[in-house]
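Support request, please re-run this one:
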Amino acid sequence: MTTTPLEPTFQQAMEITAQWLGLWENGELSDEVLADRVAELVASRDGGRGFFVISLVGDCPLMDRLPDPLVLQLREAGAGVVDLTARNLAMSTAMALHHQRLGDAQQQAGSERVRRRCTDLLRLLEPLAVKERLETLLAAARDGAGDDVAFLERWGYDAEQKRAITGAIEAVAD
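Re-run finished. Output below.
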């Protein structure tokens, strides 16, 4: 008997993630069980998006601690996880600058925390996949070339935000 892969909607994935993180924080879910469940979730694009929205933005310390079983599962999940993490790095970096301009220190700090979490995770994922993905993003942010130009234009990032994204990409390698 084969099991059908979990393919939740974006909204369902956010709700599932919030529930699992609560159980994990309360010691009711082991690192290993959480990692296995997250692996099922990130197997689909919407599942991955929902997981990252909740785990990167929320107050749960999971993405600050990154248990080894979770890192292993996220590495094995491959290009989809690398892509979502790279995009979240870019978006959080641009938003930190946006919030700084508005004088919203609390929102700025939240965006900077997401950026830091993305940087830390990218350093732990499969190095070649991360390098290739970040080179594509860097070409768009720095040179206005390649596959990510439309992504950056969709969000309307200005030159200063693109420079900040370039710096955040370069910081992953540091």
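The CA atoms of residues 71 and 133 lie 18 Å apart. Residues 1-5 have pLDDT under 50 and may be disordered.
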